[in-house]
Amino acid sequence: MAKVLVVFGATGQQGGSVIDHVLNDSELSQEFTIRAVTRHVDSAKSKQLKERNVEVVQGDMLDQDSLGQVLTGAHTAFAMTMPSFDPNSAIIEYNSGKAVADVALDKGVEHIIFSTLPSVSHISSGKYTKVAFFDTKAKIEQYIRSLSGIKSTFYAAGSFMSNFRNQAISPRRALDGSETWVMTSHLSPQAQVPLLNAAGDTGKFVGAMLADPDKYAGSTFCGATALYSLEEVAEIIARATGKLVVYRQIPLAEFIGSLPSGVGNVFAETFSYFGEFGYFGPRTAELVVWAAANARGKLTTFEEFVERHPFELK
Predict the structure, then answer these.
(1) Phi, then psi, of 257 in degrees rounded to 5
(2) Opening angle at CA 278, ends 208 and 137, nearest 5
(3) CA-to-CA distance for 152 and 67, rounded, in angstroms?
(4) CA of 308: how far to CAs of 63, 121, 195, 241, in Å?
(5) Average pLDDT in the chain
(6) What confidence tens digit (pLDDT) does each residue in 292-301 have?
(7) How are strands ordered across the β-sheet holding 192-196?
(8) Span 22-44, mean pLDDT?
(9) What's the rounded Cα separation, in Å, for the pair 171 and 154?
(10) Burial classification of residue 310, based on how many CB atoms lie within 10 Å of its CB (0-12 exposed, 13-18 middle, 19 or more buried)
């Protein structure tokens, strides 16, 4: 009988990628059946999953009874938590992740794969403390690692390639009216970021853990294709669009001022941490190379991503 794989966040980029990979993998598709967890079982994406013979169920991470139903009979669970930027976000997110782990243990789930991130406050020795959407996941990971009786593996996603389409650092037309698009932050042009095609490649990392859970038990896959400097990112977008795209380093205060009100300091600390300590910490380059080498399938380069998902610079 096939094992039940529960996938939280099934209609998002990470959960959707895990489902796609398992369904398309000749071995994993025979080993697992998928139970997709979402809050909206009648959404268009949920209906598409049902059409692919995926069991779609409604679940709430903060509802113990709901989690009990979702995880009953499951062998493995891929769990992820969603941050927000309201005052209670960290507490809510931590309680969500802890609840999933506790109920999984209670229901006899054998393996939990958690979508984590590095602890910025720990790696920076307390220098950067505002990056709660990293630190909270690291705290949940710590809790899961403390549990006995359940196997655990961890997936830490790199910076999404799609972020360059609609985030603070995305190319914007120069204010002088010239045919130039500018990417700006306070980081050096040589600052490197590990880039990931989240929707296309998350499943390739998680698929490796599913295929050989004993080999990777306790491991963290730092998911990214490779490290790219911000200057390289601009050059790749320029080649793909035929536009003049450049990266410019600006003062920290100017960068904060360019961000939406209320999140400026958070993202400024996030970027500062990347530039000073590395996205995954001092061993970022080594960790990315290891994870890429152990992924179950070819990873998407940033050049391939911008070709498949063209940037429209207007």
Answers:
(1) -65, -20
(2) 60
(3) 18
(4) 39, 36, 15, 12
(5) 95
(6) 999 999 999 9
(7) 159-160, 192-196, 226-229
(8) 95
(9) 32
(10) exposed
| Span 177-235, pLDDT tens digits | 788 999 999 999 999 999 999 999 999 999 999 999 999 999 999 999 999 999 999 99
Residue carrying structure tokens 């705290």: 139
pLDDT for 220 equals 98
CA distances in angstroms from 166 to 172, 208, 307, listed in the order given: 10, 30, 17
Question: Taking the CA of residue 129 as centre, how many other CA atoms within 13 Å lie in the half-sphere pointing to its CB?
Answer: 3
* Structure token pair of residue 150: 């359940």
Cross-strand pairs, 228 = 193
Closest-CA residue to 238 (of 285, 183, 298): 183
Whether 155 contacts 202, CB under 8 Å: yes
Residue 275 sits at φ, ψ, to 5 deg, of -70, -35
pLDDT at 176: 85
106, two tokens:
């209670």
Main-chain phi, psi angles of 227, to 5 degrees = -90, 135
pLDDT of residue 251: 97
What's the DSSP call for residue 311? Answer: -
Contacts of 74 (CB under 8 A, 6+ apart): 4, 5, 6, 35, 104, 107, 109
Q: Please answer whether residues 222 and 158 qualify as being in contact, where contact means their C-beta atoms are separated by less than 8 angstroms.
A: yes
For residue 18, the one-letter residue type is V
More confident residue, 160 or 258: 160
Buried b or exposed e, range 81-110, using 16+ CB within 10 angstroms: beeeeeeeebebbbebbbbbbebbbebebe
